[in-house]
Amino acid sequence: MAETWEIDPAHTTIQFAVKHMMFTTVRGRFKSFSGSIEADVRNPNNSRVTVEIDAASIDTGVGDRDAHLKSADFLDVEHHPKITFRSKRVEGAAAKEHDRFKVTGDLTIHGKTIEVTLDAEYEGRGKDPWGGERAGAHARTEIDRRQWGLQWNQALETGGVLVGNSVKIELEVQAVKKASVPA
Question: Which long-range CB contacts under 8 A does 155-160 form with residues at least 24 apart?
Fold first, then answer.
């Protein structure tokens, strides 16, 4: 039995963190995205995840910084309006609360696609007050932004660089069950 789940953007966060000047962390998030999970009930490792993010929805809380991140120096949202993730495999999924598993897939940023692995944890499922069914998961990974061509930086007088190359990505996902179909 396959279940289709739609990611609920009102109850999901896609966040990132990167070092600034080598000693502080700047956090941000994407405010506009959509996605779905095709969950294989009998064999959770056959499940699939698809996410599409509006790159221009980046929000660090500072307008000038957000404008720079949207520019050709970083995401170049004019030419690369979407960031996407499409899973290729799921490993260790058991659909039991607090089970940890891995989701490996293709992450496309700035027009370049590279395989990444998310460390995930299934957090459970239950009925909402309106009769629907919801499920939750948490996932994280760390990438080197330079692999996607996001090279801009500025050397610091004291050594090091203005913007860290390592980007920590963290997701808190809530999804709503849409349909069940025979697998």
Answer: 156/21, 156/22, 160/21, 160/22
Q: CB of 168 within 8 A of CB of 17? A: yes
C-alpha angle 80-85-90 in degrees, rounded to nearest 5:
165
3-state secondary structure of 103: strand
Count the domains in the chain: 1
Q: How far apart are CA 28 and CA 43, in angstroms?
A: 35
What CA–CA distance (Å, rounded) separates 137 from 13?
A: 11
Round to whole Å and give the CA distance between 14 and 21: 23
The CA angle 103-8-56, to the nearest 5 degrees, is 85
pLDDT in tens, 107-152: 999 999 999 999 999 999 999 998 999 999 999 999 999 999 999 9
Contact 85, 68 (CB under 8 A): no
Range of the domain at 136: 2-181
Nearest to 125 by CA among 171, 172, 176: 176
Q: State the CATH number of the domain containing residue 100.
A: 2.40.128.110
